[in-house]
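Our preliminary data section would be incomplete without showing what the modeling component actually yields. Below, a chain of 155 amino acids is followed by its predicted structure, encoded as tokens that our downstream tools consume directly.
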Amino acid sequence: MNAINASAGASAASQVYATRATYTADEQTAETTKTASDTVTLSDKARQAQNKWQELAANYDVHNMSASEMRSLSRELFDGGFIGTGEMMVIGAPTAMNEDPLKKHDLLNDMRHTYQLSSAMGGHSKESSELYLKSIEVLERLGKTRPIQRFANFS
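Predicted structure:
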């Protein structure tokens, strides 16, 4: 099952946990083996959050996004309770002063690279560093959740 916890402090809707633990207990006689299974069911709110997360992962490729898609993604993550306002601002920040809203970017790798450069030059406060790292973590999780896109060969 999936476990989604996009960022610390996010709303309960973003914290979806579904676990299934199975164990086998041998009795002392070793003649009888019992199997038990525990299942945690999701509340409707948690199920909606999980569905929204899956939808976002399917709709947005964090390695190929336009500026307008980055802003839409950041807003949808925020509206879904997966990130706070700080992360929304980091993810949706302009890529350049004169950015082309249709040009595609590798958002996740660009953010990693920018973070490394700015950190090396002392460009982050503790708070901005935490926001940036949380944003990168959310994008990594979203990218890992994204279903593999298969394209038909029409030759």
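Residues 126-145 form the longest helix (20 residues). DSSP finds five helices and four strands in the chain. Preliminary results of this kind motivate Aim 1 of the renewal.
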